Structure formats: C-alpha cells, structure tokens
Amino acid sequence: MTSPRKKARIHWGEEGSSGKQKGVSALQKQREQLPIAKGKEALIREISDNNVIILLGETGSGKTTQVPQYILESGMADTGIIAVTQPRRVAATSLAARVAAEQGVAVGGLVGYSVRFDEACSANTRIKYVSDGMLVRELLSDPLLSRYSVIVVDEAHERTLRTDFLIANLKTIQEKRNGANDVKGKRAASNLNPLKIVIMSATLDAEKFSRFYNHARVLYVKGRQHSVQIYHTAVSQTDYVDAALRTFFQIHTDKPPGDVLIFLPGQEDIESLDKSIKLYARRLPEERMSVVVCPMYASLPPTQQARIFSPTPPNTRKCILSTNIAETSITIPGIRYVIDTGKCKEKRYLSKDTGGGFDTLLTRDITKSSAMQRAGRAGREGPGFCFRLYTEDAFTSMALSAEPEIRRCSLTQSLLQLKCLGQDLEAVEFMDRPNVEAIYSALKTLWLLSALDNAKNLTPLGRQMASFPVEPYLARIILASREHGCASEVIDIVSLISSSSNPFVDISDQRDAIADARRKFRHPSGDHMTMLNALRSYQDVATTENKSGRKEWCRQHFVNERTFVEALKIRDQLRLTCGRLGMDWRTTRADNDEAILRCFVAGLVQQSAFLQPDGSYKQTIGQAAVKIHPGSILCEKKVPAIIYDELVYTSQIYARGVSSVPKSFFTAVTPSSKQS
Ligand SMILES: Nc1ncnc2c1ncn2[C@@H]1O[C@H](COP(=O)(O)OP(=O)(O)OP(=O)(O)O)[C@@H](O)[C@H]1O
Fold first, then answer.
1. Cα–Cα distance, 273 to 78 (Å, whole number)
2. Which key words are in the record (predicted)?
3. 223 falls in which pLDDT band (50, 70, 90)?
4. 362 vs 441: CA distance, rounded Å
5. Cα dihedral value 486, 489, 492, 496, nearest 10
C-alpha cells in the first residue's frame, strides 16, 4: 500500500458558494442569528391563520429546531402537544437534546422524544420529537391523535412508508377534528381540539404536497446561516471507497482543523474504509494531528452511535463514516468537511416473479435531494466544504428525489395497522398509490399469519399482533407461545432478533476460533436456540461478575454485550405488551425445544425453505434458491427444512438466523384452507 500522500490526488472543480458567515456564541444568540428568525412573526401568523402549511427552507436555516419553539412560545398550541416527526431515531433523540438545551431544560421535561423502545417524556412535555413509526403506532390507540394540537412532519421529502401513512391519515384526522368544510379557517363544526399540520423539508416537491392538502399555503425560508463550498471531481471515480480515502487524507494534510463526515452506502464499505484510514493514519508523521474514526450505521447500537456527538479530543481530527442515517436533520458538532461518495443503499421489495418476495437493500446512486442534504451537514456551525466524488454533470443528471417507499417496500405492517384503524390499503388516499402486487403480497402474508381471515377481515389475533412494537411475524411468534406455554423463552429470542445488532460477532477470517469459543451455546437446532443459550449464559455472568468481568467474558465468547443489554430493555417492553393483552409471559418450557420452535414456525411460515435433491434450499413460498449464511451455525449442515429471520441479497441470496425444523411442523400451522 502506498502512503496516502503518494496516492494520486483528486482534482476538483469549484462551484459558487452562497450565504454569509456569522459568528456564534451563546445558544440564544445562535437562535437569533438563524435565517428563520427573521421571518418568525410572519411564520407564526401564517401557521395561526392556516390549518396546513408547507414550509421549505435550506438545510441549517433553523426549521427543525426553531419552528416548534416558535409555535410553543406563540401560545398557539396551548391545548395540546407539538409533535415533530423524524424518519430516523438518532435525529429525534439528538434534536430533543438540542432544543431542550435551547430552552434551558432537561430532556424529558418540556422537550422530550419518543422512539421505538426508548422514550423521554413526561406530563409536562409540550414539544415531542418522535420517530414517524412511533406516531403511526400511537394512531392505533388514539385514532384522532387527540393529544396533539400541532403535528410537524419533518423531512417529508424522504417519503418513508410511515411518513406517507401519516400524511394520508393526518388529512382525514384534520377533517374530523376541525370540521369537514373547514379548508382554511379555524375551528368549525367539531367539538374536538383542532389540529394544525406543518410539512417541512429543504428539498421538497412543494406543489405536490400542497395539492394533496387542498392547495395548502407554501412558505419559503430564505438563506442559510453559513456557506458550504461545493467541489465535484473533474472525472468520475469508479472506486468510491478508494476515492474517499484519498480525499480524506488530502483534507487531513492540506486543510485547517475540522472534523470530516464521509457518506458511504453501507456497513461493509464503512468497515473497509475504517481499516484503511486507521492503517494510513498510523504512518503519518508524529507532529501531524491524530485521526479518530467513528462508524455510524443503523444496526450499530444507540450507545455506539452516540460517539459521533462526543467532543473531538485536542489536536485530533474526527472522521465519521456514515450511511444516509446522518443525512438529514442532525447537526454533528465539529463537522466542517463532508465527503459524499454519491452512493446509498435503498430498501426495495424484490417481487416473487424475480425470485424474491422480500425486502432487500441495493446499492444505487443518490438523488439531488440527498446530495443537497449531505452537503448541508457541513456549514452548521461555520462555513463548510463538501467534496462530491462525482462530476458536476453527474449531479445535474441525478433524479430530484427517490421513489417513495410506498412504491417499493413491503406493505405488511402498514396494512395491518390500517386494518386496525378500519381502513383498507386500496381505499386510503395516499400521495402515491402502492403497487397492486405489493398489496396482494401483504394481504397474503397477513392471511398466512392468521391476522386476516379468508374475507380479508382483521382477526382478533391480528389486532393483538398490531399491539406489539415489532414486525407482524415476530408478534405472531410471541402470540403462538401462549398455546405452547413457552412465552419466557420465545420473548427472549424475539428481543434479541429485534435488537439493532447481532449478538454474535462475525469476523469472516476468524470463524473457526469463534465457533470454538461459542461451543457451549451451540444448539443442534440452529441459531434461535443458540441465541437463547447465549443470553441465558450472559445473564448468569451478569449476576456474578462486575463490569470488567462481563466485558472479558463477552470478548472471550465473541458476543456483543450491547446487544444483550438492548435486548433486555426490549424484553421489558414486550413483556409489558403481553401484560396489557392479559397474556402471562412467565410460562416456560425450557426443556422443550420443540414447543419453542413450533412458535417460530407460526411466524416464519413464509420465511422457510426445503432442501432439494441437489443439496440447495428452495423457498417454500417464492421461487428463490437460498443458501445458509456462513455466520450461521447450520451453514455446513443439510437438513430437510429451515426457517430463517431474514434473507440478505449479496452475490447470492443468504438466509440469516436459521433453525432446522421438521417438515411436519408446517402442516400444523397452515390450516387446510390455506394453500401457498
Ligand atoms: N446539536 C447541535 N449542536 C450545535 N448546533 C446545532 C445543533 N442543532 C442545531 N444546531 C444549530 O442550529 C442550526 C439549525 O438547525 P436545524 O436542525 O433547525 O436546521 P434545519 O433548517 O431543520 O436543517 P435540516 O433541514 O438540515 O434539518 C444548525 O445549522 C446549527 O447551527
């Protein structure tokens, strides 16, 4: 490997900069200097006079942090809570911390947040940053969202399935709460607390949103606080990881202090760049600033994600390697340089016709919207720089925004939630209609899980499934444990599956050593029971060992302590839901593996494959040939039938989280009326 300085330099073309630099000191002064502050009075007036406002403003103009505070301070929302939705949990939690600091209060008081499996709110909370999924969940228990007087839908351009679900439902909720004929005015026929809706983004097709909300008023916030100088490569870069490496060291050797944020598509690229940067950084002359690398991706446990916000030590340059999880809404203190590879991973439903029948992540070029959001992460605290690893022509020819998730992802969970609200996917007025095939597939999945009956009506079991804060198939597994008397074991395993990362560390070149270290957890049936054994062993260790003893035990056994800690929290939530449904989560049949696996078959009936005469596995529902993932303890085995937690699509389709089950289990869960 050559030294970073010897690698070919990348040549950049400069783009005109905009905006002006302003000094910042105290938080209040910063607030006053935000571009949005100039329009505060007008903004409050417009929100007060209109039921729906579409608000566009450049990244960093102050929308997300200031608009909720303006609404609060105006007294407009005195009858309820102000909710601000975010597509990503890290944005919700970090924004709550920032706005609480601006208000001079602790998080969880006046300003709080609510994300899946984590909440900091109290009876005093008036501004609540909430993940879009959590607000959808609240709809199920409060279909008119009556606790809220203003709902701000932020980063609406991302068009996540849950945001689209909210946008559709908010329209009808507002009609009910404000009175059906009340398009512009204030309170009309209804006795309910009226609702105001604010839709926000920096990069939005404002006209489309406006039309959807009966030609709602569109407002623009002009300007950004700090300039961001954008550079494009002079020629296109085929190896974006290598180009990012070279650009990072160009910045590190040539540019003044300031942290660097690099956008990459996924975990694999992040891990590879992490290694290369560390390797090269060690070779730098001692007098140069040192480098600290922080990875950031969705499956990293929240405590590890939080490292990106911690202050950079003196004489050090922090380099954050992130997926698009850090693309919108968040301000990472210290970031002055952004490197944008121009790539992202996009969730897409692979249809059964093409051998799929599942959601998978595919690498693709980003959109203009994403490029602008990424550049916007620099220049939050002072002027910034964005290095795009693609040409200006490539930027010009990018699509404006991504295809909405509703057109490309599995609709199973949304359909179940709509059914609980007495609605049908076909009948709801969405901004963009879902595909017929995706609707059909979701109906079929829910029917196979017994959440819907033959007439597509919600069953009592389906309603119970929707109460759990997990995917329908996992909820089905938990509910099946009622019949089999093994709720305790099943909830433990489901908690581990629902955690943000795998409990087992998988290092491809150490698989033999890892298998050896974990031998005592191994269960012949496969990964589910093995996970349970590992969790139970960890709990034993946790009661006898101190912190460093636990850490050492986890290191020796190649297991991820953070996953166990997170799983135990999730377990509390799942047990609470069981309690609310009158289900006893204490039932146990630790000696009966068969009972536990039967529960998993009830939920994973579609996620199963049978061994073929040629030694491959073929999906029982769907056409794809699947391989057992090399990280699974069953990877070397040939068993007649498998169930799995997920399929991952790389060079081949791999099943992950695999257990072996007798074929006879499948006929038991599939009533004779159900045929694939
Ligand atoms: N956690 C933080 N630490 C330091 N400064 C912050 C923080 N959060 C916000 N700010 C400051 O407030 C400014 C406005 O942030 P805000 O999130 O409200 O902007 P926005 O218009 O919503 O941008 P975006 O569309 O990118 O989310 C930032 O540019 C930054 O200067």
1. 50
2. Hydrolase
3. confident
4. 20
5. -110
- Name the burial class of residue 387, with classes exposed (0-12), middle (13-18) and buried (19+) by CB atoms within 10 angstroms of its CB: buried
60 lines ligand 1 (CB under 6 A): yes
Residue 369, number of CB atoms within 10 A of its CB: 24
Dist. CA 83 → ligand 1 center (Å): 18
Determine contact, residues 111/105, Cβ cutoff 8 Å: yes
87: its two tokens: 């597509």
Token digits for 523? 């269960």
494: nearest Cα among 506, 476, 512, 482: 476
**pLDDT at residue 12, as a whole number:** 58
pLDDT given at position 508: 67
CA distance 337 to 261: 6
Q: What value of ipTM does the predicted structure carry?
A: 0.96
Sheet strands side by side (includes 217-221): 118-120, 111-115, 127-131, 81-86, 148-153, 196-201, 52-57, 217-221
Per-residue pLDDT tens digits for 296-312: 988 777 777 888 999 99
553 vs 550: CA distance, rounded Å? 5
What pLDDT was estimated at residue 187? Answer: 46
Expressed in angstroms and rounded, the spacing between residue 91 Cα and the centre of ligand 1 is 11
Q: Ligand 1 mean position to 332 CA, how many Å?
A: 9
The pLDDT of residue 1 is above 80: no
The closest-lying atom of ligand 1 relative to the alpha carbon of residue 94 is 1
Q: Tell how far the Cα of 34 is from the centroid of ligand 1, in angstroms.
A: 9
pLDDT at site 175: 93
User: What SS3 class is residue 559?
Assistant: strand
Q: Whose CA is nearest to atom 11 of ligand 1?
A: 380
The DSSP symbol for 504 reads B
| β pairing state of 81-86 and 290-296 | unpaired
Cβ–ligand 1 distance for 55 under 6 Å, the answer no
Q: How does the average pLDDT of the chain come out, rounded?
A: 88
- Calculate the CA dihedral of residues 671, 583, 646, 520 and round it to 10 degrees: -110
Give the pLDDT mean for 285-295. 88
| Structure-token pair, residue 449 | 């899980």
How far is residue 515 from each of residues 49, 444, 496, 519, 594, measured CA to CA in Å? 65, 38, 19, 6, 24
Close Cβ partners of 2 (under 8 Å, ≥ 6 residues apart): none
How far is residue 648's CA from residue 169's CA, in Å, rounded to a whole number?
32
Average pLDDT over residues 554-579: 92
Of 12-26, 224-238, 530-544, least confident by mean pLDDT is 12-26
Tell whether ligand 1 has an atom less than 6 A from the beta carbon of residue 379: no
Q: Of all helices (H) and strands (E), which one includes residue 268?
A: helix 267-282
Mutate to test the pocket of ligand 1, among 65, 157, 200 (most ligand atoms within 8 A of CB): 65
